[in-house]
Amino acid sequence: MADLLVTGGAGFIGANFVRHWRRAHPADAIVVLDALTYAGNPTNLADLDGVDLVVGDIRDTALVERLLVERGIDRLIHFAAESHVDRSIAGPDAFVETNIMGTHSLLKAARAAWLDRGTGRPHRFHNVSTDEVFGSLAPEAPPATEASPFAPNSPYAASKAAADHLVRAYHRTYGLDAVTSFCSNNYGPYQFPEKLIPLFLLNALHGLPLPLYGDGRNVRDWLHVEDHCRGLEAALLHGAAGESYALGGGEEQDNIRLAQSLCAGLDALFADRPELARRFPDAPPARGRATAALLHFVADRPGHDRRYALATDKARDRLGFAPRRRLADGLAQSIAWYVEAEAWWRPLRAAA
C-alpha cells in the first residue's frame, strides 16, 4: 500500500523530491499525481522503481479522495502549481484555477479521507509555497520570515498566497494536520527550460541571446533543489501541525552577476573539455568568444519584484535544516548536468 502522494511530482522540484524520497526511504511506495501539462515530464521519473504515476488533475476531488482512501495514503506533499511569473501576467486564469481551486480540491479530498471518515489515522498535508508571497523587499531590509505579512505582486504570487491561506484555514477550522513551507529560487537538475538558469545555459549552447530584464539588478536568494528536498523531508516528517517553515538558500545574488557566473562557468567547461566545441558548435566558446557577449538587456516585466530573501532561523532551530551546497558549487554542477542531459532537454526545446 502506498503511503505518500506527491502532486506535481513529474515537475522540477516534485521530481527531485521523489528521487530524494526514494533514496532516503526505499521501503515507501510513492504515488505521483500529475496532469502532465507543459512542465510535467514523465521522463523525470522513468528510471525509478516503486513510483506509480497517475495522470490526473488536482481539481478532480473524487480522484484524489479515491487515491487517498484506496491506497492507504496518509501523507500528501503538494507541489502541483502554475509557477512562471511571466505566464501569470499573460494569462492569470490558469493560475487561479490550478493554484487556488486545485489546492482547495486537494484540501477537500484530504478532509473527506482523513477526517470525515473518522479513521483517526495520523496524517499530514504539506503545502509547498514560495518566497514570492511576501512581495518585494527593500535592498537593506532583513529577509522575510514566516511571520512576515503577505504582499504578493504578481498573479502567480497572489494565487500561491491564497492557497496558503486555505491550507491554514483547513488546519484551524477542521483540524487538518497541515504544514506550509516557503522556498527561495530553486535551481538544479530537471528544471524546465523557461526558468533563468536552464534558459541561459541552453540559449548559450545554441549561441542565442541571454535576455536580462531591466537593469539586471533584481536580487534572488538561490537554493539548490536537493537542499530544498532535505528541508521538505524534515518539515513533512517533523514539522509541527499548523506551522510554516522558510527554506531559504542564504545565497542572495542579482541576476546580472548570476548570469555572468553562468557564462564564465560555461566558458571554463569548454576550455576543460574541447570535445564540447564539436557537440555545440554555435556556443560562443566553441568559436573562441566569451559567452557573456550574448548578454543583453530587455524591457522589464510589469511589477517585477526587486528582491526576495528568506530567513531560515526557524527551520534551522526546529528542523535542523541548513543548506549544504554553496551557489558557486551548485552552478558548476548544474552547468555540467545540462551539458550532459542533451537527450532530456532537446525534446523540450523542440516542443516549445
TrEMBL record:
**Where exactly are the transmembrane stretches of this chain?**
none
**CDD domains xrefs:** dTDP_GD_SDR_e (cd05246)
Gene3D superfamilies assigned: NAD(P)-binding Rossmann-like Domain, UDP-galactose 4-epimerase, domain 1
Q: Which PROSITE patterns match?
A: ADH_SHORT
Q: Cofactor(s) for this protein?
A: NAD(+)
Cite the GO molecular-function annotations of the record: dTDP-glucose 4,6-dehydratase activity
Provide the reaction this enzyme catalyses: dTDP-alpha-D-glucose = dTDP-4-dehydro-6-deoxy-alpha-D-glucose + H2O
| Pfam families in UniProt | GDP_Man_Dehyd
Read off the InterPro entries from this record. Answer: dTDP_Gluc_deHydtase (IPR005888), NAD(P)-bd_dom (IPR016040), NAD(P)-bd_dom_sf (IPR036291), Sc_DH/Rdtase_CS (IPR020904)
NAD(P)-binding domain residues are 5-332
Keyword NAD appears in the UniProt entry: yes
- Write out the entry's keywords from A to Z: Lyase, NAD
Q: Which EC number applies?
A: 4.2.1.46
Q: Its family?
A: Belongs to the NAD(P)-dependent epimerase/dehydratase family. dTDP-glucose dehydratase subfamily.
Q: Which NCBIfam families match?
A: dTDP_gluc_dehyt
Q: What is this protein called?
A: dTDP-glucose 4,6-dehydratase
Gene (name only) = rfbB
